[in-house]
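Progress narrative, work stream C.
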Amino acid sequence: MPRQSLFAMKFAQIYPLYVQKAERKNRTAQEVDAVIGWLTGYDAAGLRQQIAAGADLKTFFEQAPAMNPHRALIRGVVCGVRVEEIEDELMRNIRYLDKLVDELARGKALEKILRRPLE
């Protein structure tokens, strides 16, 4: 899929797919919301507002209240590409979210998904 068409996809179209993926593996929509909130800073009301407004992915990430500075700790492969090597910031943020939901669906503990830097 070309980048521009991915960026123009409505978050409201993608969000239920994330929830379905998680629920198939006995995870909850609240856990999906938690990983989205950790990454973007959206609370439940802000997330619902973006969905209701029909925000596309570009707008969703541009209007994110506070992108987590520790998101760079997310490593791994999504769609055959290492997320840490993606140059385009918006695409990298989209793939970070994909990776977090993948980890949730694979049964990884929420505490481990929400990475903490070494202190």
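Work stream C, second folded protein:
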Amino acid sequence: MSHTSDSPRDSPAGRTTRAPGAAVAAPPTSAGRPAGEPRPGTRQAQKQQTRRALLDAGLRLLEHQNLSSLGLRELTREVGVSPAAFYRHFPDMDGLGVALVGEALGSLHEVVRAVLADGADGSAPDALIDRTVAITAAYVDAHRPHVRFIARERHGGVRTVREAIAAELGRFTDEVAAGLAVQPASDGWTAAELHVLAGLHVDHMVATAAELLEAPLGDAAERDRIMRAARLRMRIISVGRLHWLDPD
């Protein structure tokens, strides 16, 4: 009497049988993942690439328009992703703008601290002024799209972006005030007076960056004029600082 076995090796050609329509699990890889499933690190890298592409496309499209006029579909079409993909990275277009603010101004904090450290070490005022203006010009040269975005949106129509810019510039002002406070020339100054002085320096830096941005590319004479005027303004501020506590 014959006996029929249900074991896989007894099926035709040694293959496992299954009911019609039954799902077949993908064979595991050597790392225990189903075949075809992306590695966690790869998935994260792809997500970061998409986020980067959205930010870069935003900067390109904002070269000649305000954030308030940039449409979601225009942006996602530029990147080649769906609008749904955008929302996996940003809550809305305002969120994209806030992220661009962080990129544009966040990296400047270390530069500002380095300049202030030079002042605390007793660097000559004129040398410090020259370095500050040179750093501002170099930053504009290296980050023109970001500087253009800040210059346009600082007083633009998107409130959350205006507030983000104001908050970053406020942080700069606080840092500059703290740096000025440890310099010998600040003896006798109140905290409020130093904060006003720091605000003058920050406003001057932003104004100089905007002027350099508007200068025609390749116009060395205009660039030199802007930088000379910037250094002169800073020297006038410096002279006023030296004599602020003089008797009336």
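Residues 8 and 15 are 6 Å apart (CA to CA). No further action is required on this item.
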